[in-house]
Amino acid sequence: MEEQTKKPYADVTIGKEKDAVIEITGAISAETLDEHKRMVIKELQKDFEAPGFRKGHVPEMMVEKGTKASFLLEEAANSALRHVYPLIVEDYKLHVITPPDVKVTKLVFGNPLEFTLRVGVQPEIKLPDYKKIAKRVMRAGKEPIEIKDAQVQEVIDELRRIRVPEGETIPELTDEFVKSLGAFENVEDFKKKLKENIALEKELEFRKKKREELGRALADAAKFSIPSILIENELIAVRDGLYEEINRNGISKEEYFTRVGKKEDEFLNTQRETIERQFKMKMLLEAIAKEEHIEPTEDELKAEAAVLSSHYRDVDPLTLFRYVTEMLRNEKTLQFLETQAK
Predict the structure, then answer these.
(1) Rounded distance between C-alpha atoms, residue 113 and residue 84, angstroms
(2) Calpha distance 118→25 (Å, rounded)
(3) Does the pLDDT of residue 4 top 80, yes or no?
(4) Which of 274, 246, 273 is nearest to 260 (CA)?
(5) In a domain, 63, yes or no
(6) CB-based contacts of 296: which residues, under 8 Å, 6+ apart?
(7) What are the pLDDT digits (tens) for 226-273?
(8) Which own/partner pairs from 321-325 qualify as long-range (CB within 8 Å, at least 24 positions apart)?
(9) What is the pLDDT of residue 240?
(10) Of the residues 37, 135, 208, 277, which has the fewest C-beta atoms closer than 10 A?
């Protein structure tokens, strides 16, 4: 009988889940930490230089002596944690959905590395009566779309102004003019198609508004927590992106928030609420799709992936495939919910 491979970690404790976040404590063996120290030294050795030795051929002992001990310790710890964390996730069958928030509580060469990890996990989702909610939301406020002649004329006047340089006479609405705008037979054909396009835009606006209302209604009815780590990480990304944009525009944060009429903490709280609702809706759509067996077909996936890959050639194919799968599944699920109003 083969001897079981000794695990590189010990004393693991999985804390009780709270708001879809769990705390993991444990220790990585001193032997494992030392192994990763050797790995770090080997990596440093590739570019290490010393008198009398060619680059990449400096003995490991000299590399270690020439490297700050605290740096080696930190890099070895990071390497060991990157190796051990996925093993713990797999062994304890944890459905994690966020990177771990790592805290090293003891770190000395020759001793086990002790750690605490906080990580967001997939919450247990109890679906509300989504068909009933969808029916109520999608039917409310539904009225026939009527486009009046005045609305059409307003768009025509705007197009006539746009098509001429400033200061020149605005052209008359003639068959020749509308043909210069596109594939139109004459003025009447132009007006008819313009009216159809305005109606389509109104329909798309109404549909977008209804989907937003549906998202809020479903999120309010579903009682489950989004991991705070997930929300905070996304909020940091939104905040940093905003600050970069503010710097590019050459204004201060104070000036920006004065312009938008909000205090910084008010803005961030609003963003936090929006992020939480978006994640909640994302998880709800995934759960509804699973319940209703909704999946995009292979042909649909290939067609959409081909379009996107032609525009984003540097994107990893697996990442692109996952994105396309989620996007199409969500769209089909929303379409399924919309049909409940019929």
Answers:
(1) 11
(2) 9
(3) no
(4) 246
(5) yes
(6) 304, 324, 325, 328, 329, 332
(7) 999 999 999 999 999 999 999 998 988 889 988 888 888 998 999 999
(8) 324/296, 325/296, 325/301
(9) 94
(10) 208
Q: Where a domain ends, among 120, 148, 169?
A: 120
Instruction: Confirm whether 311 is domain-assigned.
Output: no
Q: Cα 107 to chain center, whole Å?
A: 34
Q: Are residues 85 and 184 in the same domain?
A: no
The token pair at 284 is 């709800």
* Mean pLDDT, range 62-91, rounded to an integer: 95
Mean pLDDT throughout 301-327? 90
Place of tokens 């771990």: 100
Task: Give the three-state DSSP class for 22.
Answer: strand
| Token reading at 39 | 């790995």
Q: How far is CA 102 from CA 14, 24, 77, 85, 129, in A?
A: 14, 10, 11, 10, 39
Q: Which domain holds residue 111?
A: 9-120
Q: Which of 62, 63, 59, 10 lies closest to 32 in space, CA to CA? A: 10
Share the mean pLDDT of the chain.
Answer: 91
Helices 228-248 and 253-260: crossing angle in degrees, nearest 10, is: 100
Residue 93, sorted as left (phi over 0), alpha (psi -120 to 50) or beta, turns out to be: left
Q: Measured between alpha carbons, how far is 228 from 119 in angstroms, rounded to an integer? A: 9
Phi, psi of 213 (to 5 degrees): -65, -40
Tell which of 172, 198, 224 closes a domain: 224
What pLDDT, on a 0 to 100 scale, did the predictor assign at position 5?
Answer: 63
